[in-house]
Specification:
By secondary structure, this protein is α/β, with parallel strands linked by helices. The protein folds into two domains: 68 residues, no CATH class; 263 residues, no CATH class. 56% of the residues lie in helices and 8% in strands. Strands 1-2-5-3-4 form a five-stranded mixed β-sheet. It is globular and about 60 Å long. The relative contact order is 0.14.
Length: 333
């Protein structure tokens, strides 16, 4: 039997099709590979995952680098999960694509217009969705961390930094730097041809979540984003039981939701919260909407205030720390 090696052992299609660590280990064993330690398993999966993703992406990247524009697919990327005859189709919105490809929103409109039982991640909107297509906006932001949590402020801090640098450079020399998101926008259309399972992941979602939940402890060590995925999957499972669902969420949530739909949510706080929200939606939908809208307003106010303060500090350090500058930077979020 072979142990860990650097050359790919399993094709990327096998890694995408698998749904659990045990299933993946079985496939590796059949291929003649064993793992003395858990770390050996992780290294092998990551090697195969990165090799497979690179192979899929390299052709698209070469076309883009040569000046060719990839074609926008006829349908947006999605993941289908079927449990006991009930179908959950999860569409994943790639945020950088929506910002740079105008037709991308039209793809979703075409797919979702005739949909029943449509669930949307909180703050994701489908422009021009007909009134005849009822939808429910989930309350997954109720799982966001306290505002003193550094994990919450880090993306705003990075965004404020780039905005402050660009604003200052534009004043002193008509120059600017590219943000990480802007660098990726050049490949936005090409990303639409990638399976959702591969986007922004160094490991399959079921491997990462399986490792996190496999640790013996009082509660799973899920990230805030993973908790929101668990909440949305649980909400979809218990709302209108037995009926098929269509969901539109951020692309990173889609494969995680597949995992939680197949395996259940082990954190009882999340399942209880989803159950309460489903009950409220079914018994008093107006109150549900008011509760979510009030939460949106509070968090929006705090977010803009935080970004304003961050922009003031960074702008001051860069020599452009006026209130007007800070207000300009904050308006970018």
């Amino acid at each position: 039997m072979r142990t860990v090696e650097t050359s790919p052992v399993l094709p990327i299609s096998a890694l995408i099709r698998a749904n659990s660590i045990d299933e993946l280990i079985t496939q590796y064993t059949q291929a003649g590979l064993t793992f003395p330690t858990q770390q050996d398993f992780i290294v092998a999966v990551r090697n195969d995952w990165e090799a497979g993703r690179e192979a899929l992406w390299s052709e698209t990247r070469e076309k883009i680098n040569s000046g060719q524009q990839p074609l926008i697919p006829q349908r947006p990327p999605s993941i289908e999960v079927i449990i006991d005859g009930v179908t959950y189709r999860i569409y994943g919105e790639i945020h950088t694509v929506r910002e740079s490809v105008k037709r991308y929103g039209a793809l979703f409109l075409q797919e979702l217009s005739a949909t029943n039982n449509l669930l949307l991640e909180q703050n994701i909107k489908v422009q021009n969705l007909p009134d005849t297509t009822p939808s429910v906006e989930l309350f997954d932001n109720s799982l966001l961390p306290p505002y003193s949590d550094f994990e919450y402020f880090l993306p705003m801090l990075k965004g404020a930094f780039y905005s402050a640098v660009n604003y200052t450079l534009s004043k002193i020399g008509n120059k600017r730097v590219s943000t990480p998101s802007e660098k990726s926008e050049a490949f936005a259309v090409g990303m639409l041809s990638m399976p959702l399972e591969l986007i922004a992941r160094s490991l399959p979602a079921y491997v990462e979540l399986g490792l996190r939940e496999g640790v013996k402890q009082a509660k799973p060590r899920l990230t805030q984003s993973q908790k929101r995925s668990a909440y949305m999957a649980e909400f979809a499972r218990i709302w209108r039981r037995g009926e098929g669902k269509v969901l539109l969420v951020g692309a990173g949530h889609a494969p995680e939701m597949k995992y939680f739909l197949l395996n259940g949510v082990k954190d009882h706080r999340i399942t209880e919260l989803a159950s309460r929200h489903v009950e409220l939606l079914e018994t008093d939908p107006e109150r549900y909407q008011r509760m979510k809208a009030n939460d949106d307003r509070v968090k929006t106010t705090i977010t803009y205030t935080a970004v304003l303060v961050i922009s003031l500090v960074i702008g001051g350090l860069l020599g452009s720390g006026s209130v007007l500058t800070a207000m300009y930077l904050a308006s970018k979020f």
